[in-house]
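Hi all, long-time lurker, first post. I run a small reading group and we've been trying to get comfortable going from sequence to structure in the token notation. Rather than ask abstract questions, I figured I'd post a concrete chain and ask someone more experienced to write out its structure so we can walk through it together at our next meeting. Sequence below, copied exactly:
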Amino acid sequence: MDDDENQLSEWRAKQRCIASKVVVQKCAAPKCYNCNAASRFHSYAPHLKDFIKSFNEKNKSILVGGVDVSFPTDESEESIAVYAILEFKFNSIDKDDDREKIPTTAADVQSRVVYRSHKFFFPDVPYIPSYLAFRETNPLCELISSQIDTQPLLKPDVIMVDGNGRWHERRAGIACFVGVKTGIPTIGVGKTFYSLNGCLRKEQVLNLINSSVKRWYAEHVTNASPFEMGRDGVCAGGGTASTQRGLIIDSNPISCNQDEDESVLPTRFVSSQAATMQDMLKTLHSIARGLAIPMQDEGETLAFALVGHGGNESKNNESGTKNPIYVSVGSHISAEDAVALCALLSYVRIPEPVREADLYGRQLLRDKGTK
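-- Answer (accepted) --
Happy to help. Here is the structure in token form:
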């Protein structure tokens, strides 16, 4: 027992060291534009050209890596670490008018896999909540290091990690480890909610996210906060949906130890309650890339819950996902740009780089099991 506690104490010291080396950047846009002083919602819609240049100054495309670890059903079998790199090209960036045309459909963004690698391994430590990095970081960083050594021209501009970043008790999730160790900007993409020290329950968070969607929709349909993203990134009242399609950000955060229920809307919004969640998300999807709700601990924003994103319009999906993901800084990026990039590169619920790594790893495990 003493040995176990000594090990955890050593790991906590390493986490604090990693946390001290994490770099949180300023966001790419000069400001996050407020739509209405009376509204708690505002837009984050950086110009596409400036946004892409913040990751890659030379090209009109970006290389985004995704890393994931998959585990077999039989614990006696090897696990697999996967690393995929996708190139994303944006058709709306052109020489003559590259500041105004923001991608509005899946057809405006072209992606292709340019690199994949994997490694089978036996985890040398069991899964322990809040210590995931010590189980998965090494094989993932080995894959990244090998790629940079053998194909340096494909070094990604940013890496999305299946797991959390600064949304962690000691501000040192696995995405922070990968970012600090590689020096590459990293984003943590949590597929499920992780509770910091048990201070928030999954059901409570989902209720607060749904309440945020309802409140935004209520403001929108009652014209209390009519969202139309203007050409300069500023919200303008009335009219039809703009092509800017940035993110809508709720200024009311989800905080540890907060009271739960915000479901009761002010009287002036009651008429909006007849709409279904699907109706609300469809309306949201028509004018924005999603709704991001800050997640705070001790007054600091560590992550965003992202909902209403995805929705591959080339497949006639007119609504974003109702199931959230949880996006946090790994290192060398801002929280706003991390969640904006995840929304931009999500054709479905999971951003494509992480989704590609996950699907590839699962396929390799299935193939290995049939041999």
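A couple of things your group might point at:
Residues 95-102, 224-243 have pLDDT under 50 and may be disordered.
Residues 48 and 102 are 6 Å apart (CA to CA).
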